[in-house]
Amino acid sequence: MSTDTSAAGTRSRHVGRVIHCPPARVYDFVADPENLPEWAGGLAQSMVEREGDVVLADSPMGRVRVRFTPRNDLGVLDHDVTLPSGETVNNPVRVLAHPDGAEIVFTIRQIGLSDEEFDRDTQMVIQDLERLRTLLES
Fold first, then answer.
1. Do 131 and 42 meet the contact criterion of CB atoms below 8 Å apart?
2. In what order do the strands lie in the sheet with 62-68?
3. CA proximity to 30, closest of 138, 126, 135, 115
4. Pick from 57, 65, 72, 81: most CB atoms within 10 A?
């Protein structure tokens, strides 16, 4: 599922996947940076390194720094990704209770991206969430 919203020229796209697992299991798996290479190929293509509360990862964009919101009981998995250019992108992510288990929702924002780049980023997030669903349901 994907929906577009717009405010002041910046489009946001919300991509979600229902995962047939308890929300706490989805949250715990996604909140552990060590699991990123297993499901988030758009962010981490190999083992991650920790530097205090920052995670360093080799991504398709180059070496990135990722800072996650502190663990919480609300299903919030927001994270800031600092790109090799020094630009920081905020990525809102939520794990929600769903009648069939859990739903994970990732918000992608079109900030400084062409429509083609925005669509490419959306497809990468869709693939990552589908990989996550397959992994957790197997």
1. no
2. 49-51, 54-59, 62-68, 79-82, 88-91
3. 135
4. 57
* CATH number, position 93: 3.30.530.20
Q: pTM value?
A: 0.88
- Maximum alpha-carbon separation in the chain: 42
What's the total number of domains in the chain? 1
User: Range of 114's domain?
Assistant: 2-137
The neighbour count for residue 5, using CB atoms within 10 Å, is: 11
Cα 38 to Cα 27: distance, rounded to the nearest angstrom: 15
Q: What does each C-alpha distance from 22 to 7, 37, 56, 61, 81 come to in angstroms? A: 33, 22, 29, 32, 27
Distance CA 34, CA 130 (A): 18
Scanning the structure block, which residue is given the tokens 């009981």? Answer: 73
What is the C-alpha end-to-end distance of the chain, expressed in Å?
21
Tokens 């991206």 correspond to 113
Tens of pLDDT along 15-46?
A: 999 999 999 999 999 999 999 999 998 888 88
